[in-house]
Amino acid sequence: MTRVLVPLPVVLPLLAAALNVLLVRRQSLQRVVSVLALGGVLATAVLLLREADRSGATVVQLGGWAAPAGISLVADRLSTLLLAVSSGVLLAVLLYAVGQGITDGRRTTPAVFHPCYLVLSAGIAMAFLTGDLFNLFVAFEVMLVASYVLITLDGNGPQVRAGMTYVVTSLVASVLFVTAVGLVYAATGTVNLADAAVRLQDVPEGVRLALGLTLLVVFGIKAAVFPLFSWLPDSYPTAPSPVTAVFAGLLTKVGVYAILRTQTLLFPGSPVLSRVLLVLAVLTMVVGILGALVQDDLKRLLSFTIVSHIGYMLLGLGLASTAGLAGAVLYTVHHIVVQTTLFLVAGLVERRSGTGSLRRSGGMQQVAPVLAVLYLLPALSLAGIPPLSGFVAKLPLLQAGLADGGALALTAVAAAVLTSLLTLYAVGLLWSEVFWGPVADVVPDADRTDSVVVGTARTPRLMLVAAAAAVVAGLAIPVLAGPLYALSERAAEDLVARDAYVSAVLGDGR
Amino acid sequence: MTGNLTLALLIGVLYGVGTYLLLQRTLTRVVIGLGLMSHGANLLLLAAGGSAGAVPFAGSTDGGAGAGTADPLPQAMVLTAIVITFGVTAFLLALAFRSWLLTGEDAVQDDVEDRRIAALEPEEHPHAARPEDEA
Amino acid sequence: MTTSERADPSRSVVLETAVRLVFHTVLVFGVYLLFAGHNQPGGGFVGGLVAGCAFVLRYAVTGREGIGRAVPVDPVLPLGAGLLLAGVTGAAAWLLDGQFLESGKVELDLPVLGVVKATSALPFDTGVFLVVVGLVLLVLRTLGAEAEQ
After folding, report:
1. Which chain C positions have a beta carbon within 8 Å of B94's beta carbon?
2. Structural domain of B87
3. Closest listed residue to residue C79, CA positions, set C30, C38, C139
4. Best of A21, A58, A65 to disrupt the C interface by mutation (most C CBs within 10 Å)?
5. Domain total for chain B?
6. What are phi and psi of A287, to 5 degrees?
7. Where are the domains of chain A?
């Protein structure tokens, strides 16, 4: 059964994307196909998560070629947990986009949206599931190529300018990725992650460090780690809201997952890399949130908070303890849900007020009280106010940092607390500018040819329901905090004890 | 595994020229620079596979697997990487073309942050493009 | 040929005649490469590119309109059909108790052709071939249309 289940999250969206290309003139059928496919992926991911948590990692060798010759797909606790959360978020955003498309009639999202969105889902699923470094590169490319199209969906001036930044930065990262794959292959003679983990033990320390740092730079660009983040706040805000939401929630987190996977599996216990990660964590957190404080645009402000909160996940990883890793995993789950929700709500706010500018909007809580509630819950959660999910996710991280006790770890903990406070200030600023104050005039839609309608009081029910579902999912995290943290801890234990992963992929003989 | 000096030099030159072009302000040069850089990366991947050898088909050599045959894996990976680069470069060209249609020039545009800084102190940045100038 | 094309001074007789001569040969060579792919140099991607080159040549002569006449379908159709074919071929291995993308082969004794061996890589490669050809046509149509304006 797992023979079919493990590749399904990749295969299903790809097949659905192909169908959607054929159905390019039948938009209603496209919607049905996409929703069914992503619903199927979500169900599969939940089944896989249950299976992985019960009986350990399940491995499928594509094409029947045994590892390390063939490509392995590995469904262990970490990958299936993130896959399940991601597919839920993907489905919610799809419903949001569908709601927007149905209501806005002819000015709907262009017909390429559905195929590209599904290809993006397939790429994300492949990145989580793959057990092969080169296949990870392919997964990133599948995901990125779809994202290039999505980010320039309307092809207007700002999107093309921002898209150019985004594509060129991603391409440089891809070139570096190919370089890193070449270097790993030259050093070990394999690109299978499990096999490379075994063989890297015989590689000289200096070479190993160089490989680790090269991979860190590659994934650091994708994950928007300081100082490689400046492309993100520049390019994300110009895309249509559903696209920005899914990018914000998932694309950077795929980069974080890649860092987590490679650093723990290939380069465990390297003190230099741990220190580098901690320093990067501090700088990412602080610089990111300082950037957010001076923004006037809703989505740009939120984009800077993405950068800032990537630092928390690096902090957990840099501590290199089971508790730290567990915190990082839980934080990733929380951040995927909450950040996506915030962008979905930001899209609704912009749709209502007609502008993303903080100065030009105001009094939204009188006009749209529902939106105010939908914004407030994830915003406070992002800042880490108890008992919301941000608090639940930050607490283990801070505890792990204090337990570590080193000077660098304590600095990182202090920076994390400071960042939390500044995040509260940033989301509070947004609240007081957009939701409080006198009711501002609705800004009319400037560009009537693009796919995004703004400045209208018509909020489609499906968009609202999708956003509300995402908010509720965020509220469910603290309710399920106990089991979720226990699961994250088991996933972190898997990461620390690499033997289970290696023997699951290579067979018990090794 | 013995290194190949010609390949190593060529890879270095491709990376160097690619990086230089990537830092230019002309979009076409950026695209060409990225192309050269990815050629360098692909060659590096190929070089990682060791020296050339016989065709690696099963049963085509006498000395069992590996003896005297080329390593097929880097070649397969390079082919994949080339295909991906082909597609992405086509997209990038289309984007550069679109940008040329919209702005009328083949140049990287200032980002939002640049423009804000330029608008704050116009007299101190005489060469910086300002938002008004673009209309 | 429409009158507007005939009046175009940039037309080249040599190019037009040469393209008319090689167009079908290049197409057939692309298909040959597709079938040769399993045991010899070739395959769906290369075959698709060669076949795509035939259309690029034709585009150079007749412009977008000529391509529209040569391939009277929406280019996204071969693209989608190819992707679907490749995906379904990979998934078909599940029905035969194999792993995803696992390949199989059949040998047929056909009356005229003799023993013919076919592998499941062939439909997969055909899918790739269609995707590449569809992509080339799509690029010609969209980018070419903007360039001609």
Report:
1. 139, 142-143
2. 5-104
3. C139
4. A21
5. 1
6. -60, -40
7. 2-506
